[in-house]
Structures are given as structure tokens and as C-alpha cells.
From TrEMBL:
UniProt source species: Novacetimonas cocois
Designated name of the protein: (2Fe-2S)-binding protein
Gene3D superfamilies recorded: 3.10.20.30, [2Fe-2S]-binding domain
Start and end residues of each 2Fe-2S ferredoxin-type domain: 31-107
Region (Disordered) residue spans: 1-23
Length: 199
């Protein structure tokens, strides 16, 4: 069993702690990991085999990020790391020392929901809600990719840039996030709403 010690201190957005150090405990595979999570500097001593998902859920008690398949196939564990969407179940915490992570708990600011969160509420983009945190984080990252001109299978077939996010392109880009309840029409409507207002 690995001892886990946590410390937190406020840090400015975008600034992450970038140093790592071995753990002095008797843990066979222990390492100290420092991350900026939801704009707060955090440090944990974890087994080198610990995934980001387990660090967030089991050690830091940020249970908004869900464990669905634990094989990178459902997208329920999607978080934002340094602004990009990442499957936390496939990412080792020790490999991302110093990274800046945003989970579903860190999206709302000053008592106001993130526009994507609000759109999911407005469009009823969930049923059981289990996949919703991953859907929302993935949608935020996907829109940034789309705005930056990252290609998808759809845009490679139709290379001309469209001023609006095409529904076929959206479906292709969000294909890694599954909804067991099949709330896809409302999820799509929520994402298109945010895309329309942020284009």
C-alpha cells in the first residue's frame, strides 16, 4: 500500500509546478507527482502504475470523472490536460508531472456554469448522467481543436473550411464518447449551441 500525502495551494491559472522527486517512503514503486488540478496545486505520493483516473477519484476524491470501461473505449473518464482532452484511464499520473488538469469540478467559475455545462442543462443533454462529465470535457476540447483547424475524417473528405460546425463533423469528432442512454440528439444540440455562439 502506498502512503498518500496531499497538499494544496492556490496558484495562478496556467501555471503548473514542473518538478518531480522520488518518494522517500518504503513504497516499492512510489513517486511524488505534482499537478495543478482545477487551478489548485496538488501533490500526491502514488504508485508509478497509478492512472490519472485513479489519482483523481481514489486519492484526490474528485469523483466527477467517471470510470466506465477502464480501457479507453467509452470516454467517461475524459479530462482536459493543458487544454487538450485526454482519456485519464489510459494516462499514468507519473507521466504527467507538472501538467495542468481541469476536471468537471473545475469548469464552473464564480458560481456560474461553464457555457457547455449550461448548454447541456438547457438542452437536457443527459439521462442517467454517468457519461456527462466526459461528454462535456470532451466537447470543450473538441471545439478548441475545431477552431484551431484540426482535421477530422469528415474535413479530410471535405477540406473547405465551414464557418459553422457541421453535424457530421461533430459526430465524428465526438465518436469516442459513448452514451448508454442514447441521449445523442440532445448532446449534439447542446454542443452545436455552444459552437454557434463561440464561432
Amino acid at each position: 500500500m502506498v502512503d498518500v500525502s496531499l497538499s494544496s495551494a492556490r496558484t495562478s491559472p496556467g501555471r503548473a509546478i514542473r518538478s518531480a522527486r522520488p518518494v522517500s517512503s518504503n513504497a516499492q514503486h512510489g513517486i511524488a507527482v505534482r499537478l495543478t488540478i482545477n487551478r489548485t496545486a496538488r501533490e500526491a505520493e502514488v504508485d508509478t502504475r497509478t492512472t490519472l483516473l485513479d489519482l483523481l477519484r481514489e486519492h484526490l476524491h474528485l469523483t466527477g470523472t467517471k470510470k466506465g470501461c477502464d480501457h479507453g473505449q467509452c470516454g467517461a473518464c475524459t479530462i482536459l490536460m493543458d487544454g487538450r482532452r485526454v482519456l485519464s484511464c489510459l494516462s499514468l499520473a507519473a507521466s504527467h508531472d507538472g501538467a495542468e488538469i481541469t476536471t468537471i469540478e473545475g469548469l464552473a467559475q464564480d458560481g456560474h456554469l461553464h457555457p457547455m455545462q449550461q448548454a447541456f442543462v438547457d438542452h437536457d443533454g443527459f439521462q442517467c448522467g454517468y457519461c456527462t462529465p466526459g461528454q462535456i470535457c470532451s466537447a470543450i476540447g473538441m471545439l478548441e481543436e475545431w477552431k484551431a483547424g484540426w482535421p477530422s475524417l469528415v474535413t479530410m473528405e471535405q477540406p473547405e473550411r465551414h464557418p459553422h460546425l457541421d453535424i457530421a463533423d461533430l459526430r465524428e469528432r465526438m465518436a469516442g464518447n459513448l452514451c448508454r442512454c442514447s441521449a445523442y440528439p440532445n448532446i449534439t444540440a447542446a454542443i452545436l449551441d455552444v459552437a454557434e455562439h463561440s464561432a
